[in-house]
Specification:
The complex is a heterodimer.
Chain A (H helix, E strand, L loop, with lengths): L3 E4 L2 E4 L5 E7 L5 E7 L5 E8 L2 E5 L6 E7 L2 E6 L8 E8 L8 E2 L3 E5 L1
Parallel strand pairs in A: 2-11
Antiparallel strand pairs in A: 1-3, 3-8, 4-5, 4-9, 5-6, 7-8, 9-10, 9-11
Chain B lengths: L2 E4 L4 E4 L4 E8 L5 E7 L6 E7 L4 E4 L2 E6 L4 E6 L8 E8 L6 E3 L3 E6 L1
Parallel strand pairs in B: 2-11
Antiparallel strand pairs in B: 1-3, 3-8, 4-5, 4-9, 6-7, 7-8, 9-10, 9-11
Chain lengths: 113, 112
């Protein structure tokens, strides 16, 4: 059983399009995250939700909008995609915040043409 | 400014030797530090957490040290194996934030 699953695994699309990435975790965790890993491999936090409440919203363009319909799901919608959005996006979850280990999905590789 | 630095150059060692990876940080006062492993095309996998009041933590062939005076953590893999080849990331919580900040990782290559 996959603990944190993201779909799709690959996403190739044109500039200006709108796309969504879905994430689901079956670990019973109450906190979920979105990270962006760029070509230099830096993994940067974008958003964090705890019990469906947004608790971290880093300096991310407002073209990126997360949505958490329930504790087990955190989706990421991106409007008007730009070349600079090309990266690998990782979803993660943890039991609580702070010092808890995070469990990551295998990422969604987004390529903008 | 806050920084987390890991050696960006790959570390190449022979099978059976001990690998030592370094994580240095500046302008942080972390209560804990975490280490993750990332394989190509996969998400990071949690390995160990060490708290500020712990000098050392072990798990099987892994050992982590945490020196808050030097602002450094060392990650050791003893009796290394080719299967240990991966990128290793350190992460700590930013002051006043409830989120991890990751280093850029060090790629370890264990030669058979």
């Amino acid at each position: 059983d996959t603990a944190v699953s993201q779909t799709p695994k690959y996403l190739v699309t044109q500039m200006g399009n709108d796309k969504s990435i879905k994430c689901e975790q079956n670990l019973g965790h109450d906190t979920m995250y979105w990270y962006k890993q760029d070509s230099k491999k830096f993994l940067k936090i974008m958003f964090s939700y705890n019990n469906k409440e947004l608790i971290i919203n880093e300096t991310v363009p407002n073209r990126f909008s997360p949505k958490s319909p329930d504790k087990a799901h955190l989706n990421l919608h991106i409007n008007s995609l730009e070349l600079g959005d090309s990266a690998v996006y990782f979803c993660a979850s943890s039991l609580g915040q702070g010092d808890q280990p995070q469990h990551f999905g295998d990422g969604t590789r987004l390529s903008i043409l | 400014s806050q920084k987390i630095e890991q050696n960006s150059e790959a570390l190449n060692i022979q099978e059976g030797k001990t690998a030592t990876l370094t994580c240095n940080y500046t302008n942080y006062s972390p209560a804990y530090l975490q280490w993750y492993r990332q394989d190509p095309g996969r998400g990071p996998v949690f390995l160990l957490l060490i708290r500020e009041n712990e000098k050392e933590k072990r798990k099987e062939r892994l050992k982590v040290t945490f020196d808050t005076t030097l602002k450094q953590s060392l990650f050791h893999i003893t009796a290394s194996q080719p299967a240990d080849s991966a990128t290793y990331l350190c992460a700590l919580e930013g002051t006043g934030r409830r989120a991890l900040t990751f280093g850029s990782g060090t790629r370890l290559q264990v030669q058979p």
